[in-house]
Amino acid sequence: MADVKNGGKAPGTMSSAESDKYVQNQRKLKFAGVDIDVTEEDDLVPIAGIPCTPGPRVILCPGFAITQQEVNTKIEGGKITKRSSLVLEGEGLKVKNLDLDGALVIRTGHDCDVTVDGLVVRNKGYVTEEIPDGADVPEEVAIRGYTMRKDEAMEIIINEPGKYHIGADGEVKKV
Questions:
Q1: Per-10-residue mean pLDDT for the chain, 175 residues long?
Q2: Which listed residue, of 7, 92, 121, 139, carries a Cα 20 to 30 Å from 145's Cα?
Q3: In 10 A of CB 51, how many CB atoms?
Q4: Largest CA distance in the chain
Q5: pTM of the model
Q6: Which residues of 131-149 are buried (b: 16+ CB within 10 A; e: fewer)?
Q7: 164 near 115, Cβ under 8 Å?
Q8: If 0-12 CB within 10 Å is exposed, 13-18 middle and 19+ buried, where does residue 84 land?
């Protein structure tokens, strides 16, 4: 770890792999038309001495989309700030014109056809906190180098089969 702190290359750590995935998903969203600041290599911030993306942190679960083509059919427009965190899960989920500044988690079950259109999210979001040297934490936390403090998030979980619409206010309506 000391080599990294002194400017060496980042090792294949959990946090560097996570960061790479966030950057990959940022680029997928940008290619799909989302207004998003894609982090460049020199914009990475050190967390526990390991260069990581400052955000946005985007998780596209495999059930939502894997390929760029799938992302393009499920995402349309919108904007996401650099400090945001986004998790999308569900094969029947489509997101149009999302305006995100904070944290948003949307998870949908099988046979759920969910369209999010014009949702505006403003909250405190998630913040990375570096683990202090010598802290007594479980190994799976220590190897990551940081924890995620979850201050505030909008969570939308839909498991009952059916067709749903979510508008700007975040209200889930069965249609």
A1: 45 61 89 81 65 82 95 97 95 98 97 98 92 82 81 97 97 96
A2: 121
A3: 17
A4: 57
A5: 0.84
A6: beeeeeeeeeeeebbbeee
A7: yes
A8: buried
Q: What is the pLDDT of residue 34?
A: 96
Half-sphere exposure of 96 (CA within 13 A, CB side): 9
Question: Measured on CA atoms in the order 79, 82, 85, 91, is the torsion positive or negative?
Answer: positive
- pLDDT given at position 81: 95
C-alpha to C-alpha distance for 97 and 115, rounded to whole angstroms: 11
pLDDT of residue 63: 94
Residues forming beta bridges with residue 164, ordered by sequence position: 114, 174
| Alpha carbon distance 39, 116 (integer Å) | 26
| Residue 66, φ and ψ in degrees, nearest 5 | -115, -50
Where does 50-124 show beta strands of DSSP type E? Answer: 50-52, 57-60, 75-76, 79-80, 85-89, 93-96, 99-101, 103-108, 112-117, 120-122
